[in-house]
């Protein structure tokens, strides 16, 4: 029988079914939650100007609470080439060259100004800035420079801990690109290596060559960028233990970044890659839940062997004794120590402002048009329930590996789940802290779901249902460039009449009487 | 669907629908067979895909609130839910 690794968007929506019963099942290990609560284009649509005006009235009426930190996130959705395993929202960089790219940059600058000049953000000292995507380095140098200059001009960065940018060797290896980033204050660069095996890279349509990876790492080092991070994936098709050992040696031993970020491979059902893997066209070694668990352990051991034994976040390792301020303490709302709000700018950027959680339009053209017309370019937003706001600390604590009880508003509210985790050796509870054990860290994604409210689980199920029904990607609900076609869209289910007719034709007898 | 269908007939319908959309799942489906763990081993994406498939089959729409693990626990529980829904469909208002 075919077994599937659980869809990471959905696992754990009912803890009785998915989590506690088969917590360590190879098929039931999932991603850590990085966004909570998720918002939904169908349930949280801001589809009238009145609704939007009311929702965003806080921008011009209030100042942001002094006890919170502000992070800026910029989503640059363009990629020079699409890797076939990636489910992030992205657009073809080739479509946005010349005048179209200029128009995009002007819209970015305008959205930066609109927010920075609002009462809410005036005088706010930004604590961290991150550029993600897509691939920010797919922008031309002058475009990226224009956006960075606007950030420096419009926001107060006098107390910023760092400015981070995700890139690709395709853009970063261009003459002068890294130097330009350095001159405009970028302190951290990361890019996805994923694997150094040329054959697997080809199958996964990763366009940058291994030589470009090495050259880019060297250039980042030479430019004196304070820190740089590389992504390593595991459980890739064809990536057996030997290949993974070589990847570890190449990344940790030769490329030697400050940080290594690990990501599991997600085989999205119904994608072309999924079909190719199932048909045995990609590699003899197919991804599986069992391999994923084994390789997670192999990676942790391997990283430690190369000195990357400091686990700063669940997937974030370093060999540095003192990594300095790199924004991790602001991740996921700040782990309760100090609340961190995120302002997202650009298409599909997500925002979290206390009880407000909202997302920009995923359609680049619509996002640009609305920014140009002075309309807030938001397609969905919700006022989170008290439960959701309160649960955030516990939903995100697996990302950090521990949480101080004093930082949880109502720790005893979670007593049943905490006791279950402790009894199962997934966590250790002291008077001050709740800390995941090694096996707890291995199941960090599943543990996060234990702390979703029932309401949130029901909402997530509705999001999935409504997304698939409306033929949208269930995560972003965007209609473009997400390589996921649900099975039901590929083989349309038949009505009772069609089934009966088909059965009659096949066997000469009607199967469903009276239909 | 104009005629009222019995739970047993609905279970047969569901077996046909499941065979059609999940051809790789070769499991004997009794009334008590769990649709999730230890039975058909559907995951949550497939739970939704199954829903969309039987909606098309019966030309009905499910209220998203009914997507509970209790309703989808076994073939029998799902057939029971559908029997109620189909009865509402054919009952005169």
UniProtKB/TrEMBL annotation, chain A:
* Lineage: superkingdom: Bacteria
Ranges where the Radical SAM core domain occurs: 64-309
Chain residue ranges for the region called Disordered:
491-515
Q: Biased-composition ranges for Low complexity?
A: 498-515
* SMART domains associated with the record: Elp3 (SM00729)
The cross-references to Pfam families, in alphabetical order and at most eight, read:
Radical_SAM (PF04055)
Provide the alphabetized UniProt keywords: Iron, Iron-sulfur, Metal-binding, S-adenosyl-L-methionine
Name of the protein: Heme chaperone HemW
UniProtKB/TrEMBL annotation, chain B:
Q: What would be one Pfam family of this protein?
A: PP-binding
Q: Which domain of life is it from?
A: Bacteria
Recorded hits in PROSITE patterns, A to Z, give: CARRIER (PS50075)
Q: Which InterPro entries match?
A: ACP-like_sf (IPR036736), PP-bd_ACP (IPR009081)
Q: Which residues form the Carrier domain?
A: 5-86
State the name under which the record lists this protein: Acyl carrier protein
Source organism per UniProt: Streptomyces omiyaensis
Could you read off the lineage of the organism from its UniProt record? Bacteria, Bacillati, Actinomycetota, Actinomycetes, Kitasatosporales
């Amino acid at each position: 029988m075919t077994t599937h690794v659980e869809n990471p968007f959905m696992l754990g929506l009912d803890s009785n079914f998915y989590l506690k019963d088969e917590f360590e099942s190879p098929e039931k290990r999932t991603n850590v939650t990085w966004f909570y609560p998720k918002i939904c284009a169908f349930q949280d649509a801001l589809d009238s100007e009145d609704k939007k005006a009311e929702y965003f009235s806080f921008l011009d009426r209030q100042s942001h609470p002094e006890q919170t930190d502000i992070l800026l996130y910029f989503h640059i959705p363009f990629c020079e080439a699409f890797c076939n395993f990636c489910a992030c929202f992205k657009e073809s960089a080739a479509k946005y060259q010349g005048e179209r790219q200029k128009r995009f940059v002007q819209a970015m600058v305008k959205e930066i100004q609109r927010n920075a000049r609002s009462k809410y953000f005036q005088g706010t000292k930004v604590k961290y800035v991150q550029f993600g995507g897509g691939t920010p380095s797919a922008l031309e140098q002058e475009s990226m420079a224009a956006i960075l200059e606007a950030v420096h001009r419009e926001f107060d960065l006098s107390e910023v801990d760092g400015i981070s940018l995700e890139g690709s060797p395709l853009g970063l290896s261009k003459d002068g690109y890294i130097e330009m980033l350095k001159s405009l204050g970028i302190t951290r660069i990361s890019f996805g290596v994923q694997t150094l095996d040329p054959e697997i890279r080809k199958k996964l349509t990763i366009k940058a060559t291994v030589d470009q990876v090495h050259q880019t790492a060297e250039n980042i080092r030479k430019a004196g960028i304070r820190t740089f991070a590389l992504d390593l994936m595991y459980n890739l098709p064809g990536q057996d233990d030997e290949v993974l050992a070589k990847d570890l040696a190449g990344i940790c031993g030769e490329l030697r970044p400050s940080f290594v970020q690990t990501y599991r491979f997600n085989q999205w059902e119904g994608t072309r890659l999924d079909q190719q893997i199932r048909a045995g066209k990609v590699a003899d070694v197919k991804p599986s839940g069992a391999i994923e668990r084994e390789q997670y352990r192999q990676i942790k051991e391997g990283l430690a062997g190369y000195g990357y034994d400091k686990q700063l976040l669940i997937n974030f390792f370093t060999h540095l004794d003192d990594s300095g301020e790199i924004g991790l303490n602001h991740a996921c709302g700040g782990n309760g120590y100090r609340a961190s709000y995120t302002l997202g700018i650009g298409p599909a950027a997500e925002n979290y402002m206390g009880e407000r959680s909202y997302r920009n339009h995923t359609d680049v053209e619509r996002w640009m048009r609305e920014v140009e017309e002075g309309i807030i370019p938001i397609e969905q937003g919700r006022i989170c329930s008290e439960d959701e706001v309160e649960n955030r600390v516990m939903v995100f604590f697996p990302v950090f590996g521990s949480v101080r009880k004093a930082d949880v508003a109502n720790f005893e509210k979670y007593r049943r789940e905490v006791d279950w985790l402790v009894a199962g050796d997934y966590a250790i509870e002291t008077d001050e802290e709740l800390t995941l054990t090694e096996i707890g860290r291995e199941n960090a994604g599943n543990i996060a779901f234990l702390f979703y409210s029932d309401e949130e689980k029901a909402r997530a199920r509705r999001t999935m249902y409504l997304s698939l029904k409306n033929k949208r990607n269930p995560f972003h609900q965007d209609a473009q460039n997400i390589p996921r076609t649900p099975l039901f869209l590929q083989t349309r289910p038949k009505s009772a009449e069609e089934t009966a007719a088909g059965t009659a034709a096949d066997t000469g007898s009607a199967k469903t009487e009276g239909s | 669907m104009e005629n009222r269908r019995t739970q047993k007939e609905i279970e047969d319908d569901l077996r046909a629908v499941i065979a059609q959309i999940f051809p790789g799942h070769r499991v004997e489906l009794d009334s008590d067979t769990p649709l999730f763990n230890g039975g058909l081993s559907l995951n949550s994406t497939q739970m939704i895909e199954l829903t969309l498939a039987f909606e098309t089959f019966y030309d009905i729409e499910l209220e998203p609130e009914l997507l509970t693990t209790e309703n989808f626990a076994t073939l029998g529980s799902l057939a029971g839910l559908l029997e109620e829904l189909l009865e509402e469909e054919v009952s005169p208002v």
